[in-house]
Write a structure and sequence with these properties.
disordered C terminus; nine-stranded mixed beta sheet; Glycerol-3-phosphate (1)-acyltransferase; 272 residues; alpha/beta; 10 helices; globular
């Protein structure tokens, strides 16, 4: 209970400070949003006792569409602490207390996949973010996994690169970069398959009980792995791109997990 109370108070204190600093920067039209956001995520990851190891690096000197797998709510601070980026998130998050406001201030792109017009608006927003120099993180599975495997990537989501090109113009190209996030240790010991649900938030798991259990049992080791950037042009095939990115992220995840169960991940699952 003491740990839970400490994390709760610290989270609201950190987030309140984030709101104040970002509001001031916007009001005075000052730069620094990316650096403030990354600093916030670093502190949040430390609060959640996530020790992060980064393999590789983001595309050098250019904004990219980062295509990643998705395991947990913890992915956001872990990835956000690793490099400056904005995220694509489902529309419902915009209405969440505190978290929704923070996401808006950090320039999160919200998408309602059930409404086609809203999806088009989100794509235009992604194009604007890239043009402004922000790398944009897209979770291509369309859901979160149990942390033991990478689910098939949805080509319709990866195809956002096509739509972004339509917004930027026919002569443009988009830098697309695969990224793997996974969790390999719990309390300093290797994390087996049976322990990854301590971190993984998926299916119909209730958030608050899951969060309380995580706070009780952390710390965790996280590995963030960047693949080679790809220059994506309008003539490229989005399904082939999705398959290539999925295979790369799966391979990087297998390498990071390095456990007996990881070998099974090398076998590509049937596509849905």
């Amino acid at each position: 209970m003491v740990r839970l109370a400490f994390v709760t108070v610290s989270f609201f204190t950190l987030t309140g400070g984030l709101f104040a600093v970002l509001w001031l920067l916007a009001a005075l039209k000052l730069p620094g949003r990316r650096q403030v956001g990354r600093g916030y995520f670093r502190l949040l990851a430390r609060l959640m006792r996530a020790r992060i190891r980064v393999v590789g690096a983001p595309a050098d000197g250019q904004a990219a569409l980062i295509v990643a797998n998705h395991v947990s709510w913890l992915d956001i601070p872990v990835i956000g602490a690793s490099f400056p980026a904005v995220f694509v998130a489902k529309r419902e998050i915009a209405g969440w207390p505190v978290i929704g406001l923070g996401a808006k201030l950090l320039h999160t792109v919200f998408v309602d996949r059930a409404r086609r017009q809203q999806t088009g608006d989100a794509t235009a927003e992604i194009a604007r973010r890239l043009t402004d120099g922000d790398s944009v993180v897209l979770f291509a599975e369309g859901t979160s996994s149990d942390g033991n495997r990478v689910l098939p990537f949805r080509s319709a989501l990866v195809g956002a690169a096509n739509e972004v090109l339509g917004q930027l113009g026919p002569a443009s190209r988009v830098i697309v970069q695969p990224l793997s996030v996974c969790y390999t240790g719990l309390q300093g010991l290797p994390m087996g398959r049976q322990h990854r649900p301590v971190v993984a938030w998926y299916g119909d798991l209730d958030f608050l009980p899951h969060l309380k259990e995580y706070i009780r049992r952390g710390a965790v080791d996280a590995v963030v792995t960047f693949g080679e950037p790809i220059a994506y042009e309008a003539r490229a095939d989005r399904k082939e791109l999705a398959r290539s990115l999925e295979n790369t992220v799966r391979r990087m995840t297998v390498q990071a997990l390095r456990g007996p169960a990881a070998e099974a991940l090398a076998i590509r699952p049937e596509r849905r």
